[in-house]
Amino acid sequence: MNRPDPARVLLADDHALVRQGVRLILDSEPDLTVVAEAGDGAEAVARARRGGIDLAVLDIAMPRTTGLQAARELSRLLPDLPLLILTMYDNEQYFFEALKAGAGGYVLKSVADRDLVEACRAALRGEPFIYPGAETALIRGYLDRVERGGPLPGRVVTEREEEVLKLVAEGHTSKEIADLLTISPKTVERHRANILQKLGLRDRLELTRYAIRVGLIEP
User: Fold this and answer.
1) CATH assignment of 159-213, given 1.10.10.10, 2.160.20.60, 1.10.10.200, 1.10.357.10?
2) What is the pTM of this model?
3) Quick one: fold of 7-136?
């Protein structure tokens, strides 16, 4: 009886040593094989678009285009391609952003040797994967915030930054935004720089696309 061909994995991480380690983990499994590597998110998107990929594993923190940006782009271009986020950040904000970006799982690099294979198989089956311990941490964090009356859940940008983000995306100048929010143009520019840095975006166009994706403005 012939065994089905192994699932073809695209691995994106800007550190060659990390890619080498992850490749060793995946290639040791009979049902998984790494067929392509990328050093940043833009390269990952370009490679995935060429086809021949069954699963993309993306690091969050990469130059040029982050894993989250790549996940959003791939979700739009290739909605049937399963995505996994591989990260060193045990951070619920990144976790929720990854889910919003279209990823089906979130795996910590620190325990990749334990969790990554299971996460890959779950993603290929169309099932979500949350690293062990995350459910408890997320529920506890939720309940703690309820008890303290804090925001639910933690957001990547502050409320003020979200206001600035929306107005920038709508095409307002810094002076117009300053007048609307009763702050100085210099403060607007500082908020804008913080937003771009936090979200891993480069310019107003990417910021506008992000605002559309998260529902801040209509396309």
Assistant:
1) 1.10.10.10
2) 0.64
3) Rossmann fold (3.40.50)
